[in-house]
Structure formats: structure tokens, C-alpha cells
Design goal:
Radius of gyration of chain B: 31 Å
Strand order of the largest sheet of chain A: 6-7-8-3-9-10
Number of domains of chain B: 2
Helix content of chain B: 55-70%
Number of strands of chain A: 10
Oligomer: heterodimer
Number of helices of chain B: 12
Helix content of chain A: 25-40%
Strand content of chain B: 15-25%
CATH superfamily of chain A: P-loop containing nucleotide triphosphate hydrolases
Distance between the termini of chain B: 27 Å
Order of helices and strands of chain B: HHEEHEEEHEEEEHEHEEHEHHHHH
Strand content of chain A: 25-35%
Number of domains of chain A: 1
Shape of chain A: globular
Number of helices of chain A: 7
């Protein structure tokens, strides 16, 4: 694998805690985590359910804020940002891939891929060209005008990956992306992530499937909100 | 940018077609009611004022104060009498004056007793001819009353079909008015004065005699020399009658109605009616707005995950707010457009129906562009207003919570 000679820090979690309060109980979803991820890394976060891996992903993806500790995206602390700034950071720097695909059901494949660019105020023509290019690259050039309901699970997840790449983000954040796919389609998606990391994207994969985690260069195991190995 | 959000919102509404239409139903009804009622009201106003101003700008009516709405002669105030009539006849500017009686009378026909309105016709040939012409009174069956007729009666147009007495009253039949026999000499064409369509009319002297009225007069109708002096003459009459009755200004127990006053009072009534109907239409619009708010709330709940996804891929709170507000506004806007069209059709239908029923093109519906555009914009605003809180809540959802669905 072609790695850069001088690794650049893309994501850094420094002594991060995330506690929830459920009634009188305090749930320590993330209980003191330090992670540094460099550009081009393909990292898997694994662990049983309830281990805090989804919380970790939400924190890294700027969907949630830490109770304590600092999170740096491209060396910028996101802690002090308001919701609109966070939205812009997510839109520009992070591409999300979800377990349930999360495509907008009223939009065609093409429109779904164009949507992140809408929020970055990119002109229509450019949006259409780029979305077309991305979908063609992953082999869906014939299905641009299909609604999600007209696509198979594997195709939907590929549309979702294309959407994640729409704004050319540095980081791809995938939460159980293969959870709703059979093993063959799951492997296809995992191989797409390997290719993306080779192209210089930083890929963070949250999964409980050891087969899929094997594709990553680095695996973090979470248990009770703590990293138990490196 | 706006177009992108518009497309997103429009797609969402299209996907929930049935619910969108049901939501808009409330707005349809409200806007249709507003447009049709206001158009009809304006048409009615134009028709009524047009009629008054074209026919009788030189006519005044004098009656007892306070008897405006009840049947004249029914209130206990000082009656108009022959003395007043004499007085008025002498006032300069008064061309002709006629005493008029308007009473409820007992009619007997086919062994059945019923009560109807009766109006007097002036005895003087010049005056009754004038009355026939200005009121557009024409016989549909038989003929009109003329000098020399004795114990003859004219019936309003409703009696062509009115079978209240068990059978139709035809020309030539005998009826009893207050137990005195009269012959039906004619049945009139439909009149724009609806009262006359259901009334009996006989000569003034006969009416006085039959009802044993004495020197009382219910109304005095008079014509002035020219329309330009109508108001001025009315003031003169008031002054003379005040002097005669020893009353202070403002304490009159009689009223002199000029055409202007009649138009004004008609307008006042029409305006009051308009306010009431618009109020009712507004209630329906409020209900429509609540419908939109309800749909938007449900929509926000159902699409929590979509909202979360959009936020994850870069939508700011303002973006989400815009999309949802546009959606609510669109519900109002489309509802308004469809409602205004339905309202216009309803108004047109009712006016056509009324014109056929009246047998005249009296009723021209007044569709003003400002009314149509105004009500459509108003519907749009109702949509936005009703969608404001749900949209705000959608925009404030935390991405993590929203993604959980």
C-alpha cells in the first residue's frame, strides 16, 4: 500500500469522554479515548454492541459533541463550533456512509449524490457533472434516474458511497456499511474503501464484522467505552 | 439555491399526494369561500347601488322614525297623517307626492284565511302611471288597475305558482280582503322589489276604506323637481315638519330618506353581511392552517431520519428550516390557487343562477385581480405561518438524535 512519507494528522481525539444521563444513571459511552488518524489511513473501529463505537463515530463525524476532551478535525478543534459551522465542516470534510444507506427516498440516484453539493452551494451544472461522473465510476451510470426503491441493497450502498464522495471530503466515515448486505456485496463495498484509501482518502469504518475489519490497516477495539488494543 | 430547495420540497409533497391534497382541502374551502363570497358581495353591491342610482335619484321617502325594519304602522310612534301630506305638498321643490299604505291584511280564498302584505296604488291617474313606469310594473296576466276600477286587486308574481290557498288564484277569481270581495284583475311580472312579488295591491282610497285607517299614512313618497335638489329638499321637509311638530333638531320622530341615504344604508347592511361571511371564511382558513401545521408536525416526525441524514451531509439548520417552510408555504399556495379557482367558479355559478331566477342580468360578479392575488398570497402566508413551529423544530433537531429515527 502506498503510504505518504510524511503522515498528516486528520483526526485527533484527545482524552475524550462522552457520558449520557438516563434517569439517575450515567452511561459512560466513551470513557477516555485517545486516537490519532493520519491522512490515507484505513482504520476500523470494532467492538460488541454497546461498546461505544457508534458514539465514537458520531464524535469523529461532528454529529455529537464530547462531554469532555478535545476533538480535532484537520487540527481545528470542533468543540467550540455552533451547529451551522459543524454542518459545514461535515459537508466539506466528511463523507458519511450509513448501515441503512439513508438515501432520500423521493430523489433519484443522481439527485441523492447531488444533494451534499446543494448544501455547499455548488452550481447545478457542476453538481450534475460530478454526480454523473461518480455514479458512472462505481458502475451505476445506467441507473442515474432510478429511485432508491428501484435499486438493490448493494446498488443503494454504492449510491451512498458516491454521495459520500460528492464534496471530495478527506474523510469517509462508514457506520456498519455492510450490515444490511450479503457477504458478497459487503466485500465489494469493503474493497471500494480499500481503493479509496489508496487514493489518499482517510477511511474510518465502524463494524462488528471481523471479516470486514480485516480490510483495514489498523483496528481499534472498543470495550465499555475504552480502547482495549491498538 | 431557492430552486433547489423548492424542488426538494415539491418532491416531498408529491410523494405524499393524498395527504397533501387532504391538507390543502381546508385551505381550498377557506379561500374558495373568501373569493366567492367577496365577489358575490361586490357584485350584489354594484347591482343594488346601480339600481337605486339609475332609477330614483329624485325620489324621497318619508316615514316614522324607528319603523325602518318592521312593517310600517306597527310601531307606537306618532303616525304620519293627511296633515303632514298637505304640509309636504306645499314645500317648494316637491313636484308630486303620494301617500302610501303598507299593511298586513287578511286574505280569504278557497275557504282559507292567510295574511299577506298589501301596498296602496295612488288614485290619481298621473301618479299611478308614474308609479307603474318607475317601478317597472307590468302585467303578466290580465291588466293593471286604472281609474274607474272598483274592488279590483293586483297580485305579485309569486301567485303565478303560489298554492298556499290550496289552489292557484287566477285572473277573474274573487278573493276576500278583510271580508270584502275583490276581483283579481291582473298578476304582475317579476319585480326587482321582492316585497311586491308576494304582495297584493289596490287603490289607496279603497285600502283606507277596507282597513278603516282614517287619516294615517305609512309612507309618503315624493318626487323632487330635479335630482340635484334632493338633499336640499329633504332638509327643507325636515325643517318644516320639525316646526309643525314643535321638535328640536336631532329629535325627529320621522325620517326623510334620500336616495343617497338608501344607498348608504344598503351599503351598510351589505358591508355588515360581508364582514360576517368573511369572518366565517376566516374560521375555515384558520382550521386549514391548523391542518397544515398538523401535517408538517407529522412530516417532521416521519422524516426525522431524513433530516438527520441531510444534516450529516452538510445541511445547516437554516437549510432544513427553509426546506420545511417552503413545503408548508407550497401547501398554502397550491391550496390558495385551487381554492381561488373553485371560488370564482362558485361565484359565477351562483350569479348565473340568480340571473336566471330573476330573469335579468342584474347580477354581475365582480372578480377583482387584487382579490384573487391577495387571497392566494394570504393562503401562502397561512401555510408559512402554520409551518413555522414544526419547521423550526425540524431545524433544531440534533443530528445524532435525528439519525436514530
Amino acid at each position: 500500500m502506498a503510504k505518504k512519507s510524511k503522515p498528516r494528522e486528520v483526526i485527533k481525539l484527545k482524552d475524550v469522554f462522552r457520558y449520557y444521563h438516563l434517569g439517575d444513571e450515567t452511561v459512560k459511552a466513551i470513557d477516555g479515548v485517545d486516537i490519532t488518524i493520519n491522512q490515507g489511513d484505513f482504520v476500523a473501529i470494532v467492538g460488541p454492541s454497546g461498546s461505544g463505537k457508534s458514539t465514537a463515530m458520531n464524535l469523529v463525524g461532528a454529529l455529537d459533541l464530547a462531554t469532555k476532551g478535545s476533538i480535532y478535525l484537520d487540527k481545528v478543534n470542533i468543540e467550540r463550533m455552533d451547529e451551522s459551522e459543524l454542518a459545514q465542516v461535515r459537508g466539506k470534510k466528511i463523507g458519511f456512509v450509513f448501515q441503512t444507506f439513508n438515501l432520500i427516498p423521493t430523489m433519484t440516484a443522481l439527485e441523492n449524490v447531488m444533494l451534499p453539493m446543494v448544501f455547499q452551494r455548488i452550481p447545478l451544472q457542476e453538481r450534475r457533472e460530478r454526480a454523473n461522473e461518480l455514479l458512472t465510476k462505481i458502475g451505476l451510470g445506467e441507473r442515474l434516474d432510478h429511485l432508491p426503491s428501484e435499486l438493490s441493497g448493494g446498488e443503494r450502498q454504492r449510491v451512498a458511497v458516491a454521495r459520500a464522495l460528492a464534496n471530495n471530503p478527506e474523510v469517509i466515515l462508514a457506520d456498519e456499511p455492510t450490515g444490511n448486505l450479503d457477504s458478497k456485496r459487503g466485500k465489494e463495498i469493503a474493497e471500494m474503501f480499500v481503493k479509496l484509501s489508496e487514493e489518499g482518502k482517510t477511511v474510518i469504518l465502524v463494524t462488528h464484522d471481523p471479516e470486514i475489519a480485516k480490510y483495514a490497516d489498523k483496528i481499534y477495539r472498543l470495550k465499555d467505552g475504552k480502547i482495549v488494543n491498538k | 439555491m431557492f430552486k433547489d430547495f423548492f424542488d426538494i420540497s415539491f418532491n416531498n409533497l408529491r410523494r405524499r399526494k393524498l395527504r397533501s391534497w387532504l391538507t390543502m382541502l381546508g385551505i381550498f374551502i377557506g379561500i374558495a369561500a373568501v373569493v366567492s363570497l367577496i365577489s358575490l358581495g361586490q357584485g350584489l353591491q354594484t347591482a343594488i347601488t346601480g339600481q337605486f342610482s339609475s332609477i330614483s335619484t329624485d325620489k324621497l321617502v318619508i316615514q316614522n322614525a324607528g319603523s325602518g325594519l318592521g312593517p310600517p304602522g306597527s310601531t307606537v310612534v306618532e303616525k304620519l297623517t293627511d296633515h303632514d301630506f298637505e304640509l309636504i305638498n306645499k314645500i317648494p321643490g316637491v313636484k308630486t307626492a303620494s301617500p302610501i299604505l303598507l299593511r298586513t291584511v287578511k286574505i280569504e280564498f278557497n275557504n282559507k284565511l292567510l295574511f299577506y302584505m298589501m301596498r296602496s296604488i295612488p288614485d290619481d291617474p298621473k301618479k299611478y302611471e308614474n308609479y307603474y313606469v318607475t317601478q317597472n310594473i307590468k302585467p303578466q296576466e290580465g291588466r293593471l288597475l286604472k281609474s274607474g276600477d272598483s274592488r279590483k286587486v293586483l297580485l305579485g308574481n309569486n301567485f303565478v305558482t303560489n298554492e298556499d290557498f290550496g289552489k292557484l288564484i287566477r285572473v277573474g277569481k274573487k278573493i276576500k280582503i278583510e271580508n270584502i270581495e275583490f276581483e283579481v284583475i291582473g298578476i304582475l311580472e317579476p319585480s326587482s322589489e321582492f316585497l311586491l312579488n308576494n304582495a297584493f295591491q289596490i287603490f289607496y282610497d279603497e285600502m283606507k276604506e277596507v282597513l278603516e285607517i282614517g287619516d294615517e299614512i305609512d309612507l309618503i313618497g315624493l318626487q323632487v323637481d330635479s335630482p340635484t335638489i334632493a338633499e336640499e329638499t329633504a332638509e327643507k321637509i325636515k325643517k318644516e315638519m320639525r316646526k309643525d311638530r314643535d321638535l328640536k333638531e336631532g329629535k325627529e320622530d320621522f325620517s326623510v330618506q334620500t336616495p343617497l341615504q338608501v344607498i348608504q344604508s344598503v351599503n351598510t347592511i351589505l358591508t355588515a353581511i360581508n364582514i360576517v361571511v368573511i369572518g366565517i371564511a376566516m374560521i375555515s382558513l384558520i382550521v386549514g392552517g391548523i391542518g397544515i401545521a398538523n401535517t408538517m408536525y407529522t412530516s417532521v416526525l416521519e422524516r426525522k431520519k431524513e433530516i438527520g441524514t441531510m444534516k450529516a451531509i452538510g445541511a445547516t439548520n437554516l437549510d432544513i428550516l427553509s426546506i420545511f417552510l417552503l413545503e408548508a408555504g407550497l401547501l398554502g399556495l397550491v391550496g390558495g390557487i385551487v381554492g381561488a379557482s373553485i371560488g370564482a367558479l362558485i361565484a359565477y355559478g351562483i350569479s348565473s343562477g340568480a340571473n336566471i331566477a330573476l330573469g335579468a342580468d342584474l347580477f354581475v360578479v365582480d372578480f377583482s385581480m387584487s382579490l384573487i392575488l391577495g387571497s392566494i398570497s394570504f393562503a401562502f402566508l397561512i401555510g408559512i405561518f402554520s409551518g413555522a413551529i414544526p419547521s423550526y423544530q425540524a431545524s433544531k433537531l440534533k443530528p445524532v438524535d435525528a439519525l436514530r429515527g
